[in-house]
Design a protein that fits this description.
The complex is a heterodimer of chains A (365) and B (265).
Chain A (H helix, E strand, L loop, with lengths): L1 H5 L6 E12 L3 E12 L3 E5 L6 H9 L6 E6 L2 E2 L10 E4 L11 H11 L4 H14 L15 H13 L5 E5 L7 H18 L2 E6 L2 H7 L2 E6 L2 E6 L1 H6 L4 H6 L4 E9 L2 E4 L2 E4 L9 E6 L5 E3 L8 E11 L3 E8 L2 E8 L16 E5 L6 E4 L1
Parallel strand pairs in A: 3-8, 3-9, 6-7, 7-8
Antiparallel strand pairs in A: 1-2, 1-4, 4-5, 9-10, 11-12, 11-14, 12-13, 14-20, 15-19, 16-17, 16-19, 17-18
Chain B lengths: L1 H10 L3 E2 L5 E2 L5 H6 L2 E2 L2 E2 L2 H32 L4 H9 L6 H12 L4 H8 L11 H25 L3 H9 L4 H29 L3 H7 L6 H9 L5 H34 L1
Antiparallel strand pairs in B: 1-2, 3-4
Classes of the chains: A alpha+beta (365), B mainly alpha (265).
Chain lengths: 365, 265
């Protein structure tokens, strides 16, 4: 399922933003010239820390905020002066925003009734949708009688029943506990594939974005830092911010000696990227890409380090290493001790660390 | 609170003695008289006054709602919320009677309104005494009792529901109707009750601005306790009025179900 959905769908953009700018109270810049295109049928995530502008972007798509400059197109249509109730989108709000005085059925039926569809048709579509999100038995309940996960399903059904061109989701799983969140992540992906509706998904949870998205954008201070496939962003971050925000990263400064060699505090390192000799660069390497060993392996980019701290997380061991004045973090999978090549290291032990050139990524210069 | 009410309940089953004393034996005569069942035959005088009073209170409540609801919204969404709220409660800082007399000054033959009309070259109007003056002053008096609870409800409105409704295709009016109005309903119910019940028993305003020509059930009761000194009949009339209010509340609570009861208290 994952490989299938990861293929970026072809077709015209479902959402297109060009140089969108939004300033609040004439001083707080929420969006600073954002351009992006979301393809039809795509699961697209906007990821970033709070205050990065991702929610503002979503609200602009929903029509709840008006951009100060730039162009917004949804399904090819210019959204200038189009109010929320005339847009081909629906929103799943952060705190669900269910109507407290209506039961689940009426909440889900709301959008169809606003379109004045015949009641028989409303009933049929609402029932089918409740079935799809597996809450058919809750139709007569009021929102206050539901659990967080059930409310989330109602909010989802209420939006999806209108068959929007684009579904906007604002941290929909933010208020749920971890286990339920994982469950609903899978459920959301299933629904998205089944209904083939474009999802624009706002989250600050990097793992959630990596798991669910076809493509994603990392945002910071009202700008997009990088857009791409999840594995692109994780494996090939282009900025130190992306490297650090998506998981953990070892950042190493250095000055290029040759097109493929760079002088760093760890000594000269080989890289795959083409560098300009004499220029300064910032390199990133993921903790799980570091190779530890007791004896030198003879490969390139091998340095000596000392184990300063060990964090046991269950699935992996995290080693905090001192290499000269640099601190490196290395993860090793907590495999069976009898497995060949598996080693555990002790506090204070001297180890060899290899930084494979193909995993050293230039994130700044 | 209970003792005077109990005293009145007892009094309503007694009779008027010499010099306005209360004497036995217990009787239903006061109640029968109120409902027009006298020895001389059916006389609906008091029932008509009661009907007129209910009509009066309904109209006052409706006007207060039409004025007060938007006003409460405007205040809640204004930048100068505190100052405006202060203006709403400011009248409470002056004596009620003085405020009613002020309306006489405004409405009387050579009053403020007619002076203004004169300046425009228009003929003076007879605004005092009149039903118009009584309505105006009553609405003015009870407006804050509606504005304050509605204001509180508006302050607590979850506006994301308004956004959600619009997101689902409701235009601004329908979104208000389905997503905002229901949220303010508890405030509206509280405000309506706070206006309707005292308006139903109004006597000072109708007495002063109606100059004896506007008779409401409140005036009848007050006269029994004052001028006529028939406390027994006055108590009976007061209890009929109270019964009517309680009946109304009970009907409302029953229709709204348990939720309605929650809202009442």
């Amino acid at each position: 399922m994952a490989t299938e959905s990861r293929k970026p769908p072809e077709g015209p953009p479902a959402v297109e933003l060009k140089n969108v700018r939004k300033v609040f109270d004439s001083e707080t810049v929420a969006l600073d010239g954002v351009s992006l295109a979301v393809r039809e049928g795509e699961f697209f995530s906007l990821l970033g820390p709070s205050g990065c502008g991702k929610t503002t972007l979503l609200r602009i798509l929903g029509g709840f905020e008006v951009p100060d400059a730039g162009e917004v197109r949804i399904a090819g249509q210019d959204m200038k002066d189009v109010p929320p109730f005339h847009r081909p989108v629906n929103t799943v709000f952060q705190n669900y925003a269910l109507f407290p005085h209506m039961n689940v059925f009426d909440n889900v039926a709301f959008g169809l009734r606003m379109k004045r569809l015949p009641e028989a048709q409303v009933r049929r579509r609402v029932e089918a949708m409740l079935e799809l999100v597996q809450i058919a038995d809750l139709a007569r309940r009021r929102p206050h009688e539901l659990s967080g996960g059930q409310k989330q399903r109602v909010a989802l059904a209420r939006a999806l029943v209108n068959e929007p061109k684009v579904l906007l989701l604002d941290e929909p799983l933010g208020a749920l506990d971890l286990k339920l969140r994982k469950e609903l992540q899978i459920e959301l992906m299933r629904l998205q594939m089944e209904l083939k509706i474009t999802f624009v998904y706002v989250t600050h949870d990097q793992e959630e974005a990596l798991v669910m998205s076809d493509r994603m954008a990392v945002m910071r201070d009202g700008r997009i830092e990088q857009i791409g496939l999840p594995e692109e962003l994780y494996e090939r971050p282009r900025t130190p911010f992306v490297a650090r925000f998506l998981g953990t990263s070892n950042l190493i400064e250095g000055r290029a000696l040759e097109p493929h060699a760079i002088e760093t505090p760890l000594g000269p390192l080989r890289v795959v990227a083409e560098l300009t000799p004499g220029r300064d660069y910032l390199l990133s390497i993921r903790p799980e890409k570091l190779r530890l060993s007791r004896a030198p392996s003879g490969g390139p980019n091998e340095v000596r380090a000392r184990v300063r701290d060990i964090v046991y997380t269950g699935a992996e061991n995290q080693y905090i290493l001192s290499a000269g004045e640099l601190e490196l973090i290395a993860y090793t999978l907590n495999a069976d001790i009898s497995e060949p090549g598996y080693e555990e290291y002790d506090y204070g032990e001297e180890v060899f660390v290899r930084l494979p050139p193909e995993n050293l990524v230039v994130v700044g210069g | 609170m209970v003792v005077p009410a109990l005293f009145m309940l007892v009094a309503s089953f007694l009779q008027r003695g010499p010099h306005g004393t209360l004497v036995g034996p217990p009787t239903l005569a006061n109640y029968l008289r109120f409902f027009g069942l006298t020895e001389a035959g059916f006389d609906p005088l008091y029932l008509l006054i009661l009907a007129r009073s209910v009509f009066f209170a309904l109209v006052v409540t409706l006007i207060t709602l039409l004025l007060g609801y938007p006003l409460a919204f405007a205040i809640a969404q204004s930048r100068h919320k505190e100052a405006l709220l202060l203006l709403v409660v400011l009248p409470f800082w002056t004596n009620f009677l003085i405020r009613i007399y002020a309306w006489i000054v405004i409405f009387q033959k050579k009053g403020v309104v007619n002076a203004f009309l004169g300046m425009l070259g228009l003929d003076p109007l007879t605004l005092y005494p009149s039903w118009f003056a009584v309505y105006t002053a009553t609405v003015y008096t009870y407006l804050p009792f509606l504005v304050l609870p509605v204001f509180t409800a508006v302050e607590r409105v979850d506006w994301t529901l308004h956004e959600a409704a619009q997101d689902l295709g409701a235009g601004r009016f329908r979104s208000f109707l389905h997503a905002v109005w229901p949220q303010t309903l508890p405030g509206v119910v509280a405000g309506v009750l706070l206006v309707f019940i005292p308006a139903l028993g109004t006597f000072v305003i109708s007495d002063l601005l109606g100059a004896g020509r506007v008779i409401l059930i409140g005036n009848v009761i007050q006269q029994q306790f004052g001028v006529v000194r028939d406390w027994a009949f006055g108590s009976a009339a007061a209890y009929v009025l109270m019964g009517l209010v309680l009946l109304g509340l009970w009907l409302y609570a029953r229709r709204a179900g348990e939720e309605g009861l929650d809202r009442l208290v």
